[in-house]
Amino acid sequence: MTAIGLLARVAHQYFVLGETQQAIAERLQINRTKIHRLLSEAKERGIVSIRINAGTSEALELEDRLRRKYKLDICGITPTDTGGELGLSEVIGIYAAQTVETLLHDDMTIAMAWGRTMKWLASNIEPVALRNVTVVPLLGSLTRRSSIDKYDAAAVFAQRTQAESYYLPGPIICDSHDSRETILQQPSAREVIQKAVNADLALLSVGGTNSSTLRSVGYMTEAEFEDVLAMQPIGNYLGYFFDRNAD
């Protein structure tokens, strides 16, 4: 049995048939702890998608107030409960996928950031065969560490929608202004940036400070991060930290 086949079989027995993890472990002669890990991996890889189609009157009222105040077309409030391996970023990504699915159609370009929230959003998009769809990044991604791969959302999103995926050949943070300008003058970079500018849909998230993916993947040293915190930021957006006075 292939790895994907095992994930699908365990997920089917647990989520569809309603069997306990212990019963599945005994049937497949696998340790129960491994069954738990397989179920988590099945959700992370998008083999299992969980939908909760319910909303409280309090949440619906707050959504309506936010829509009217900020003139939003779509507004959704997610639960803040977290636990196990899922933090708030992952929970938001899972719920956001349900809204994003309603915006997808053939013949479109989707620009996408990366990070925890975006990766979980991409992983929870229901597989669909879209035609003539392109996914381009909103951020550079090249780094000397492989840890960034687990936050790469564009490639996962493209795989789930059978879209063409582009890459931006450059890092998110350059070591100098001259390096930045050199990269921006490259035809391959300019092509991807132009596609992102003209995208039909942009998917990104506003992150916190301590939970910044930039910090997690080593783009910033601890000393650099402490310097940023000294300026009292309240969040980060496409690699930029901002405070309460940001426009």
What does this structure look like?
With 247 residues, this protein is α/β, with parallel strands linked by helices. 45% of the residues lie in helices and 9% in strands. The chain is built from eleven helices and seven strands. A four-stranded parallel beta sheet has the order 3-2-1-4, with helices on both faces. The chain has a three-stranded antiparallel beta sheet with strand order 5-6-7, with no helix packed on it. Strand 1, helix 6 (116-123) and strand 2 (133-137) form a beta-alpha-beta unit. Helix 2 (21-28) crosses helix 3 (32-44), helix 5 packs across helix 6 (116-123) and helix 6 (116-123) packs parallel to helix 7 (154-161). It is globular, with a radius of gyration of 20 Å. The model has no long low-confidence stretch (mean pLDDT 84).
Number of strands: 7
**Relative helix content:** 40-55%
> Judging from the principal axes of the Cα atoms, what is the shape?
globular
Q: Enumerate how many helices there are, as a single number.
A: 11
How big is the Rg?
A: 20 Å
Overall mean pLDDT stands at 84
* Element pattern in H and E: HHHHHEHEHEHHEEHHEE
Q: How much beta, percentage-wise?
A: 5-15%
Whole-Å distance between the termini?
55 Å
What is the spatial order of strands in the main beta sheet? 3-2-1-4
Q: What class do helices, strands and sheet pairing give?
A: alpha/beta
List the uncertain runs.
none
Largest sheet: 4 strands, parallel
What are the main properties of this structure?
alpha/beta, globular, four-stranded parallel β-sheet, 7 strands, three-stranded antiparallel β-sheet, 9% strand, 247 residues
